Amino acid sequence: MVRLILLGAPGSGKGTQAKMVAGKRGIPHISTGDILREAVRNGSELGRKAEPIMKAGALVPDELMIGIIRERLRQPDAARGFVLDGFPRTVVQAEKLDALLEEGNGKEPPRVVHLLVPDEVIVQRIAARRSCPACGAIYHLEHAPPRVADVCDQCQGKLVARADDTEAAVRKRLEAYHRQTMPVVGYYRAKSWLREVDGLGSVDEVFERIDGVPG
User: Fold this and answer.
1) Is 125 a known active-site residue?
2) Which of 72, 89, 130, 209 is an active site residue?
3) Out of 72, 129, 130, 209, which one is annotated catalytic?
4) Active-site residue 172, yes or no?
């Protein structure tokens, strides 16, 4: 069983890496960002609560995120493991997740990997990021471009630059990450669960580093 928590700043590449790990292991990739963006597109109650918070570049409240994750981890496809991408983002969420995992899939601790990428590299990366609103696929114009410009490889949808991928919004998200999420890194380091991985290099190089982490 692989239960992987992938930590990293927005734009560190953790979404791409999470999908690759999930695909290799045959387990679900659980992205809180994808769940929230879908809720906003659908106009659900969750989406209406989350949309103004996300547009401001702030983090969605703990209790709202914990409820989302609790519901997702109870689904049958997560019984054999999962890759968590974008959660936990606060120490409170990390503590609640510990309790959820103890209830569910045994006593073996999760594997926790922190992707290390400098902030200035992240700002440059995100300016070239594109996503598909239809299926959620993510591309990078330099490192992982689509086969046809502005067209999704998977569903042929039109690729867009997300509204929250402007430099100002990215810097605000990075500030929130360092203030609220870096303590989570310390939390897992104190438990001796944390492994840090260099996030610079090609997608395949970073994947090999993550895949080689013991656990």
Assistant:
1) no
2) 89
3) 129
4) no
Tokens representing 71?
A: 């519901």
Say whether 74 is catalytic. Answer: no
Neighbour tally for 127: CB within 10 Å: 15
The predicted-structure confidence for 112-151, as pLDDT tens digits, reads as follows 999 999 999 999 888 788 999 999 898 988 878 999 999 9
What is the rounded distance in angstroms from the CA atom of residue 66 to the CA atom of residue 156?
34
Q: Could you tell me the pTM of the whole model?
A: 0.78
162 is catalytic: yes
Tokens 């679900």 sit on residue:
28
Please say whether the beta carbons of 197 and 209 come within 8 A: yes
Among residues 14, 72, 111, 130, the one annotated as catalytic is 14
Encoding tokens for residue 73? Answer: 């981890």
Query: Which residue in the list 96, 111, 173, 209 is annotated as catalytic?
Result: 173
b or e along 180-200 (b: 16 or more beta carbons within 10 Å of the residue's beta carbon)?
bbeebbebbeeeebbbebebe
Beta carbons within 10 angstroms of residue 29's beta carbon: 21
CA atoms within 13 A on the CB side of 16: 23
In the set 162, 171, 189, 195, the catalytic residue is 162
Give 75's pLDDT tier (boundaries 50, 70, 90).
confident
Is residue 14 annotated as part of the catalytic site, yes or no?
yes
